[in-house]
């Protein structure tokens, strides 16, 4: 039986604190005071009989009990949001919204084709496509702000409560501008990698561990001119106007390579290959429009990989 003492504000506050990992940030987003957030969390803990957060240095982190409750609280808020959306849609005649998190590796080649196919189905559904780092998108998926994440498979410790459908695999490439000195074949790529600025995936990105292992395996312990970035627009502009080297998933710059705007250095990076696919919450039941979108994503992925 559901304890009548648990209110919507308890779930909303708990999910936002878990998402922000900060009482102060959650209070700002919820437009309430910090003491009000603290009081609400304490009320929730009294009802549950366990602590859902604990101190972690100067911040806070969610407890094991909190992790368990978060999966259900996120699902409950999602269900409520869908119910409200359904009523609103019924009154306005609009289709249900679909919120998709797309990692950079699929944003350029897969998603445009998938969305074009989806629109041909005329479901009437409203689409929201967001991009960002994998950790951020998965957290939004966990709490119900997203319905689907498309991209590389996350690390096992981040996949609790999620299901993954494999579509294809891709590897990391070292991209440079046409005419880059390392393309001449006169210099060893690994011996001279440190002579140029190198754009690296951030530490929070999925491919960072693959890249680090690959570099170490090839005798590179560190790079003196390293720049961490998740910005595709910066990466493209900087590499095309300099001798920088961009270490990035192939899917992000495949079109640039096909168009001759960028070139992949002639090195074997097959050991960096990893699965790309669809990630959903295990407790989620996709709506008809979302199911159709997932199918168009599968078709788009199949078409792209067939060309490879």
Plain-language structure description:
The protein is α/β, with parallel strands linked by helices and 308 residues long. It folds into three domains: 1-93, Winged helix-like DNA-binding domain superfamily/Winged helix DNA-binding domain (Arc Repressor Mutant, subunit A, Orthogonal Bundle); 95-168 and 275-307, D-Maltodextrin-Binding Protein, domain 2, CATH 3.40.190.10; 172-272, D-Maltodextrin-Binding Protein, domain 2. Helix content is 46%, strand content 20%. The chain contains twelve helices and twelve strands. It has helices at 8-20, 23-30, 34-48, 64-92, 104-107, 110-120, 134-142, 189-192, 208-217, 232-240, 250-258, 288-307; strands spanning 53-56, 59-62, 97-102, 126-130, 148-152, 162-170, 172-177, 198-200, 226-228, 245-249, 262-264, 274-281. It is globular, with a radius of gyration of 22 Å. The model has no long low-confidence stretch (mean pLDDT 86). Activates transcription of the pcaDCHGB operon for the catabolism of the phenolic compound protocatechuate. GO terms for molecular function: DNA binding; DNA-binding transcription factor activity. Belongs to the LysR transcriptional regulatory family.
